[in-house]
Design brief:
Helices cover 12% and strands 43% of the residues. The protein is mostly beta strands. It has 2 domains: 94 residues, SH3 type barrels; 61 residues, SH3 type barrels, CATH 2.30.30.40. The chain is elongated, with a radius of gyration of 18 Å.
Length: 167
């Protein structure tokens, strides 16, 4: 039984590698792409089957993750800290979110009232704050979260690609 499980895992990993190498995945969506966690309990597994061990569990819905490969109904994801693993597709959402990133952990990211550094500062956000992405264009993203709403320079976010437009 262990040999059969190992063989299934090897086949699954080879298929996932093939999916990663193509511009579009089996789902017809681009790889890589950003999504978010749908549930506040998401098991992250070592491989793309329920037979694989759970490596860790996410406990916060809305966290952004990047899909880096697909195998059947499984998605290999990477989080903002670089951790990777496999999750079942139904635990992911197309809703776009992002994490505020800073070069130094103690620095604060400025959130503006409009997409212009000369506009008023609406908030100062710490690294690690998760926000819903409403719109991105021309290097700026309109984001919102618990107690804040405004515009941030796109380079300050993990969960959107450089120069990606989001409507």
């Amino acid at each position: 039984m262990a040999v059969a499980t190992a063989l299934v895992s090897v086949v699954a990993f080879e298929a996932a590698a093939d999916a990663r190498d193509s511009a579009l995945s089996a789902s017809g969506l681009p790889i890589p792409r950003y999504v978010s966690l749908k549930s506040d309990h998401v098991n992250v597994r070592a491989g793309p089957t329920k037979d694989n061990d759970v490596n860790w569990i996410y406990t916060k819905a809305g966290l952004p993750v990047e899909i880096t490969a697909e195998f059947e109904n499984w998605r290999r994801i990477r989080d903002s800290e670089g951790a990777e693993g496999w999750v079942y597709h139904s635990l992911l959402s197309g809703r776009r979110t992002a994490v505020v990133t800073m070069k130094t952990k103690g620095d604060l990211a400025l959130l503006y009232t409009s997409a212009d550094t000369r506009s008023a500062v609406a908030a100062r956000l710490q690294a690690g704050v998760v926000a819903q992405v409403k719109h991105c264009a021309k290097g700026w993203c309109h984001i919102a979260g618990n107690g804040f709403d405004g515009w941030i320079q796109q380079q300050r976010l993990w969960g959107v690609y450089a120069d990606e437009n989001i409507d």
